Amino acid sequence: MKVEKVRLSLGANSYDVVIGTGVRNRLGPYLRALSLGEKVAVVTNPAIDRLYGAGIRRSLQAARFVPKTIRIRDGERYKNLTEIERIYDQLILHRFERGSTLVALGGGVIGDMAGFAAATFLRGIPFVQVPTTVVAQVDASIGGKTGVDHPRGKNLIGAFHQPKLVCVDPGVLGTLPRREFIAGLAEVVKYGVIMDAAFFKYLEENAAAILAMDSKKLFHCIKRSAALKAKVVSADERESGLRKILNYGHTLGHAVETLTGYRKYKHGEAVAIGMASAAKLSYRLGLTDWQTVQRQISLLRTFHLPTELPKLDPGSILETMERDKKVAGGEIFFVLPEKIGVIGIVPVDRKVLKAFLSA
User: Fold this and answer.
1) What pLDDT does residue 154 have?
2) Which residues pair with 131 in a beta bridge?
3) What is the C-alpha to C-alpha distance for residues 180 and 172, in angstroms, rounded to an integer?
4) Element containing residue 275 per DSSP (H, E)
5) What residues of the chain score a pLDDT lower than 70?
6) Which of 254, 266, 280, 295 is catalytic?
7) Is 243 an active-site residue?
8) What pLDDT, on the 0 to 100 scale, is given for residue 47?
9) Can 26 be counted among the known catalytic residues?
10) Helices (H), 123-214
11) In sequence order, which residues have a C-beta less than 8 Å from that of residue 19 and are 6 or more positions away?
12) Which tens digit of pLDDT belongs to each residue from 128-164?
């Protein structure tokens, strides 16, 4: 079994992203090596639990842990404080302590929620990520961002809380619904646009094989994306500067998710729309050329991702973006491409934005 590691260098908060087919079944030994307490809560949803829960529990039990399973409802619309209360209730019922551990087994929603519960229960307990979707494996599980949504905005409630380990098993992607797999590729494209022109070209040249889920190509995509995110987070853990580039496509993408009730679009689909729109906005502002816009839109469409902004009221989009956590000093900041692999972070005037959205 080929296993590779990507290191996040964060001082006392440093940890590894372990990548390899089958690594989920070695979770017990990995946790034992971290000297974590014997009580472990596996936070997951019923569908993921049916697929992988039993194997995770066996691995933990074999390593002399005492695992409990906490099942929460599936979907972004359940990513709220009410559902977090269900996690707290089970942790209290089973007398979890500060040395106990949460394992997030699932996609980005599960990871965000389990991480937030771990960050806030007893003022912080350890947690480990076992991501099962493309979005989670290449992006959401890495970097310590945890949180829940509010009816008026996405991820407005949260905390930075780094995991002790991220255990990435590409082998689980074969059970993903096709739409979920494709949606995750938006985050992979994002890394090429914001900081790696060679990786973007790799995606252009290998799109067909990636869509066919070629194992070697997928492994490379996951490892490269993880390495790029690790580099950014290691330099800026709390998003005070450089880490903001990871929000490419998310400012407008989050607004689309919020205004469509987290039901119409997968997260990656909304990010794809946000990236295509940000590229067009960059061109409109004279910050990039049309070829840069075309290459992004072409690659996103090759991956069968949406690129057109849905018919939403421009005023409502603007109002939602104004509540986004990426607003600073009352100004809406956008991550905008200058060319493939190079981006800038700039404030965009509201009148300019509204005109752009109306067009």
Assistant:
1) 86
2) 106
3) 13
4) helix 267-284
5) 1, 325-326, 328-329
6) 254
7) yes
8) 96
9) no
10) 134-135, 178-195, 197-205, 207-211
11) 3, 4, 5, 6, 168, 170, 219, 222, 223, 226
12) 999 999 999 999 999 999 999 998 888 899 999 999 9
Dist CA 210 CA 204 (whole Å): 10
Q: What residues are paired with 212 via a beta bridge?
A: none
254 included as an active-site residue: yes
Catalytic (active site) residue 267 = yes
pLDDT the model gives residue 152 = 84
Residue 104 CA to residue 90 CA, distance in Å, equals: 15
What letter does residue 309 receive in the DSSP assignment?
Answer: P
| 107 three-state secondary structure | coil
Provide the pLDDT for residue 1. 67
The reply to whether the predicted model has a pTM over 0.85 is yes
Question: What number of helices (H) and strands (E) belong to the chain?
Answer: 15, 12
145 a catalytic residue: yes
- Active-site residue 247, yes or no? yes
Nearest to 251 by CA among 233, 229, 271: 271
Instruction: Specify whether 71 is catalytic.
Output: no
Environment class of 202 (CB within 10 Å of its CB; exposed 0-12, middle 13-18, buried 19+): middle
Of 180, 237, 239, 269, catalytic: 239
Cα dihedral 133→139→141→145 (10° resolution) = -140
| Cα–Cα distance for residue pair 252/231, rounded to 1 Å | 25
Residues whose CB is less than 8 angstroms from the CB of residue 330 and which lie 6 or more positions away in sequence, other chains included: none
Predicted pLDDT at 326: 65
Closest to 108 (Cα-Cα) out of 232, 272, 225, 266: 266
220 has catalytic annotation:
no
Q: Cα-atom radius of gyration of the chain, to the nearest Å?
A: 20
Give dist(CA 129, CA 264) in Å, integer: 27
- Please give the C-alpha separations between residue 303 and each of 40, 130, 181, in angstroms, as whole numbers: 38, 25, 10
How far is residue 72's CA from residue 88's CA, in Å, rounded to a whole number?
A: 12
φ/ψ of residue 49, rounded to 5: -60, -40
3-state secondary structure of 189: helix
Q: SS3 string of 226-270?
A: HHHHHHHHHHCCCCCCHHHHHHCCHHHHHHHHHHCCCCCCCHHHH
Overall size of the chain counted in residues: 359
Residue type, 78: Y
166: closest CA among 1, 8, 2?
8
